[in-house]
Design goal:
Helices cover 38% and strands 25% of the residues. The chain is α+β, with helices and mostly antiparallel strands. The strands form three sheets. It has a two-stranded parallel sheet with strand order 1-2. Helix 3 links the parallel strand 1 and strand 2.
Length: 118
């Protein structure tokens, strides 16, 4: 996800939190990954009471490996940033479903369907 405490990321984090009991029943492990540091993640997780872990990718290694580090533009300004994406992996760590350019509304339900299909 792009950044802690931004409107879209806050909505997404709350959506996963609010459906946590359904996610937990699938046996899935959930990790949120962004470039924010560990201290900011801790404040974000505490403020939102998140039941899952947030991982700090400060050196953009995971973002590059999963090809979510992309050129973006906003108000005519071009910059590098994280493309909001979700990866569903099976128990062996094989990527089974990829959601790119995620729209927050309804996304958790998409993920739950993907988990159910494993």
């Amino acid at each position: 996800y792009p950044r802690d405490f931004t409107p879209g990321c806050t909505l997404e984090a709350r959506a996963f939190r609010d459906r946590w009991s359904r996610i937990e029943k699938t046996g899935a492990a959930v990790f949120g990954v962004s470039r924010d540091d560990v201290a900011l993640h801790a404040r974000f997780a505490k403020a939102l009471r998140l039941p899952y872990r947030l991982l700090a990718d400060e050196h953009v290694k995971a973002c590059r490996a999963y090809k979510v580090w992309r050129r973006k533009s906003l108000y005519g300004r071009s910059f590098m940033g994280i493309e909001r994406s979700t990866f569903v992996l099976d128990r062996r760590g094989v990527v089974r479903t990829v959601f790119r350019r995620v729209k927050v509304n309804g996304h958790v339900e998409e993920v739950l369907r993907a988990l159910g299909a494993l």
